[in-house]
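B., you asked whether I could sanity-check this one before it goes into the benchmark set. Here's the sequence:
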Amino acid sequence: MSEFRKAKQRVLVSTGESVRIVRELQELSQNQLSSLAGIPQSTISAIERDRVNLGVERAKTLARALKCHPAVLVFPGWEIEAESAA
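And here's what the prediction gave me:
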């Protein structure tokens, strides 16, 4: 048995919030990200407020602009659970 307990997830992050967090960590404004991704600033704003679905193609486009894997944006709370031995 492990001496460590798994930390509990305290904050749920939505897809839009993950886009905003990654953008802000890179010190980009919505306008700068808009220019890099070729997506209108108003759409980026709507994505960050979870008013517009990110979608696969937009996730790929934003991930390229933000230099991260699309899964970082699409599945912010993804957690791989240990599979039990069969």
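One thing to flag: Residues 15-74 form a domain with the 434 Repressor (Amino-terminal Domain) fold (CATH 1.10.260.40). Otherwise nothing jumped out at me.
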